[in-house]
Specification:
heterodimer; A: mainly alpha; Cytochrome Bc1 Complex, Chain D, domain 2; 6 helices; B: mainly beta; Sulfite Oxidase, Chain A, domain 2; five-stranded antiparallel β-sheet; five-stranded mixed β-sheet; globular
Chain lengths: ~140, ~425
Amino acid sequence: MNTSRHNIALISAVPIVLAIALGTGLTWPHTATSLPAAKEVVKGSVPKWVKVSVDLPASQVSFPPGSGSVIANAYCLICHSAGMVLRQPPLTEDEWTAEINKMRNSFGAPLPADQVEALARYLRTINGQSTKGPSAVDGQGS
Amino acid sequence: MPRSNLSRSPLSRRRFLAGVSGVGLTGLLGASAWNAMAATLVEFPFVNGRRDLVTNFPQKGAMLLQRTRPPLLETPFEVFDHGVFTPNDRFYVRWHLANIPTEVDPATFRLNIRGHVGQPIQLTLNELVRDFKPFEIAAVNQCSGNSRGFFSPRVPGGEWANGAMGNALWTGVRLKDVLDRAGVKAGALQVRFNGLDTGVVPQTPDFMKSLDIDHARDGEVMIAYAMNGALLPLLNGFPLRLVVPGWYATYWVKMLNDIEVLDKPDDNFWTTKAYLIPETPFANIVPGQKDVKMVPINRMLPRSFFTNVQDGAVLKVGQTTIVRGIAFGGDTGLAKVLFSADSGDSWQEARLGSDHGKYSFRQWEVSLRLASPGSRKLMIKAVNSAGSAQPDHANWNGAGFMRNMIESVSVQAA
């Protein structure tokens, strides 16, 4: 059923609308109001507890080469993978500085103060902008 | 209304297509080529919005990767068209701290209730299940920063599109009943919740959140041991998760193992310094505005979404098609969901699907027939039972919280 659903989604919109009008049975496998697995719950029943053991994937991504990438790879990756940094909107150097200082002051990142400027410049280089406007960084830890 | 009125027909291409290739390219892509693209990435309609679709996280199906460690995984939006309950293996994931236990043994796990109580207690999972009356509630769990990527101007943080939310049927016990077992002493002010996760460096504040004592004892806040009839995936908080119906997900502490009743206000970092919003309607301020009181984020606002039509869809002139989506009221139930096919000049009430309770997603649908060719802006607006309606304009705050403006899609009638 999954296969047919995907095929439906892949064709362009006009034929889909036609198909609906012709009543060719293009229904999806799930009904909107069904409770996927919830009907199996018996109130008051004891869940069958099982030990859970998983492996979490490791990130293979490091910061791109450039002046300052050594700092980023050495300190940022202690607590989090690079992906979230690389997926930020383009920030000004001041905004990157605020983010770095949040990591240092709120979360205890062991980045020395004398490397903040170089790191902010690097982050602005790889994912930044130079235009000035009201800063969108409010310094919260979230 | 009868269930059969909510039909199940995909109207348009998936959101992948609108973003990755644009409208004009649709007809040029063969199915197999498109399938390969769709299987690997999504391009959200904001700068730096490319996301890989990954399947390598335990107990999870295909999810949109924002960060590997600690995991931030977004639910692909097409999932919300499949039903009002979000499958456990597609439910979004958001962790703050990277020391997440990868192994949890129910035989040795204990839930502690301590602090300003008559008798501190420690419960095994079986005791929690057997000794307390079971409680079930359908409720939306939504990240405070859901849709942050759409903020303008952009703000740093988890750059979600609209998929940092999910709806589940939560099964467990009332927090009130567990607190009563320990015996809350007079003078209790707040209850603080902590899970098994910790920071990588010792200086990182442990992730904890607090609720006022009356809220904690309201008979709705609960400790869940199952979602949608199954044990929680580890990344969604196995074995126990706090459920705070109607409130943003920051309070829904995962891997919950410690409950502390406080006789003074919680002063921990995550309560006092993080997850703060301006105390203004819709948490809305002007960029750069500083003279505003900040308060902890709290109740959710109403939202509604299209799930079977996206920007760029082409509708056949004169044909009636079903347009549908999901909606929720936030901290209370939906009163109505309003649909517009003329950029908001006129609105009609959408039909609503089954009601699973005031905190749940609810499906809406309309029968749409466009009589003449041209472009149209379709809009959808939820109004909750307290009279709060989704606003016309986007809110803005520096943390990117609480977006709930009216959603719209641009379509072509041809």
